[in-house]
Write a structure and sequence with these properties.
There is one protein chain. With 267 residues, the protein is an alpha/beta fold. The chain has one domain: BirA Bifunctional Protein, domain 2 (2-Layer Sandwich), CATH 3.30.930.10. Helix content is 38%, strand content 26%. It has ten helices and eleven strands. It has an eight-stranded mixed beta sheet, sandwiched between helices. Helix 1 packs across helix 9 and helix 4 crosses helix 8. The longest helix has 18 residues. The protein is globular, with a radius of gyration of 18 Å. It starts with a strand and ends in a 13-residue tail after the last helix.
Amino acid sequence: MSDVWRLVGLDVYDCYMNMAIDEAILRRMSAGLAPNTLRFYRWKPSAVSIGYFQTVEQEVNLEHCRKFGIDVVRRITGGGAVFHAFDGELTYSLIVSRDEGRVPNDISESYEVICGGIVAGLRRLGVEAEFKPINDIIVNGRKISGSAQTRRRGVVLQHGTVLLMVDVRTMFSALKVSGEKISDKMIKSVEERVTSLRGELGRDVGFDEVFEALKYGFGKALGVEFLESKFDDEELKLASDIRDKKYKTRWWNFTRPVDHPSGFKLI
């Protein structure tokens, strides 16, 4: 097993390129052309990502998103719709060969191992985080991080978010909330279930600070060291191609895979 994995940190891309890069690494790793990789990134502009099996019209307030320049993209992982605020969160992705042996084959166990990196990183920041099955991190009973996973071509891809700050009203405006009008009571209810680093630490927390803490946390949880690097030209070329042919297309984002007449495949 390799004890040194690649780390690519604090990239800023739009939602289509972010999802395309994750998939490009997965594809190249399955072909033996990319190392195990931990990546941290942000979304510009802010975006909504929906789970692989979701229906975009049911989950996203498309009119609001168009009006305020919020992009929308379908992930290759499952789970629910997520609002990604440019200034409010840091996203990670871990792409690792299943042959590596660091990630358990059991999905529930693998979530606990990988999310252990977030727990360790947040504790280094002074936040008493804990893992809540199947894929959440909580602090004082409130959610601060969620993750989603897929396994394809002998590779595990898990990505998720860590909230630096949260604006529930903005988040709900981009998402559809059971057809109900957004109310102060509803906002308060969600704020009682969701938290952020700013809320827990009582101060602004910088992206560089969180990056360094999570780098430490993942290294501790997985028993590896990280070598900071950049993507090579071939990876970015592949990612750009996947972005244009898949993630930026209407057929990918607006047609559920199970409803598509061709039965298009995940990758």
